[in-house]
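Side project, low priority. Logging it here so it doesn't get lost.
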Amino acid sequence: MDSAVILTKIEDLVSPVLANLGYELVDREFAVEGGRRILRIYIDRPGGVTIDDCSAASHAVEDLIEVEELIPEKYVLEISSPGINRPLRKREDFERYAGSIVRMKTRNPVGGRSNFKGELVGLSGDDVVVTIDGKNYNVPIAELGKARIDEDPFKSQKKGTKWKCNAGG
């Protein structure tokens, strides 16, 4: 079975289980590293996820995938948060993260370009609207290859400012 088909089946199977546990399935992917096949599942919830959340989700997902025998060969399951530069896949993502800096890559050029980095305005019909240097670009959702938040947590820090850590008393 093709990896894309397996990923779609996994998403359909585990999304409701994760939702019942209070998590959103943000993304899923297969990777091969060091000859090992890895299934990565990214989850989130309001306030973020903890290691305990990842562990609970891992147990629920792993058992479900094993029972359904979706992955015929050996694999490693990794469950984690999507991180600060989370992927944007669903229409709701583009609405929820309006105002954020995003990076998008299209399958085919749109308005003469395939790479976009700018402020996410939101959705207009079936287009994602992003502002780059004061100009709005309407990118059809159907043309998106990848899209993600592109925040730099250190950008707001003034040059020369030192981080201070108070580790106890």
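Brief comment: Confidence is low (pLDDT under 50) at residues 161-169.
Revisit when time allows.
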